[in-house]
Amino acid sequence: MRLATWNVNSVKAREPRLLAWLEEKQPDVVCLQEVKSTTEQFPTEQVGELGYTAATHVDGRWNGVAILSRVGLDDVVRGFDGQPGFPDPETRAVSATCGGVRVWSIYVPNGRTPEDPHYQYKLTWLAALRDAVAADLAGHPDLAVCGDYNVAPTDADVWDPAVFVGSTHVTAPERAALAALLDTGLHDVVPTPMKGPFPFTYWDYRAGMFHQNKGMRIDLVYATPSVASRVTAAVVDREARKGKGPSDHAPIIVDF
């Protein structure tokens, strides 16, 4: 199976690139984040022509997640039990069983700044996700939680730790929340970078950040041992970040 995850930063803006990428890379299952569309605007028909069934959880302008699968799409759950809101629950998680593997596509709240109420919302959201995933693991030994976590797990996952002092994405509570999720029995499937020593997945749009590889690893694939032990390849598809009108994130592709 080929599993991929990609924050597309608007499926409407990225539709031609997404469709071309699906044809080229031929993933079996794709988790999308920051879809930023309504149900009607999502290219369900277009991905269907390529053999994919889509499960979406979208609300229009902001957020939005989806799973595309050409190996089955069963038991779709939008959101999760106990999911907090800001103030209402947002479209940040969808899960489904695809070819016998339970797959989650998640878009963790940004947090904004450590002093902002959105930061506490982020921590609460991650704690609730941890509980929901733990419950799901009881019935699904093959499971992967994929997406934009908006947290860099270690200092090695940002281009310069000094730049991020006092910022979100690198604070001890955020990293502790990731560790708690891993403690449910998941493994961090770290991809191979296509440039430099670090598998960054996000680069700010500011001039030069991508070409200088001043990035962060905030898109993650957390998988159960039965999935992680069967991984034969995992890469950051840096080529998808190049060219005209890319997302600010690159996809991760995992073969197992």
Automatic annotation (TrEMBL):
PROSITE patterns: AP_NUCLEASE_F1_1, AP_NUCLEASE_F1_4. The keyword Lipid biosynthesis does not apply. Coiled coil: none annotated. Keywords: Hydrolase, Magnesium, Metal-binding. Residues 4-249 form the Endonuclease/exonuclease/phosphatase domain. Its cofactor is Mg(2+). It comes from the Bacteria. Gene3D superfamilies: Endonuclease/exonuclease/phosphatase. Belongs to the DNA repair enzymes AP/ExoA family. NCBIfam families: exoDNase_III, xth. This is Exodeoxyribonuclease III. It comes from Asanoa siamensis. The gene is xthA.
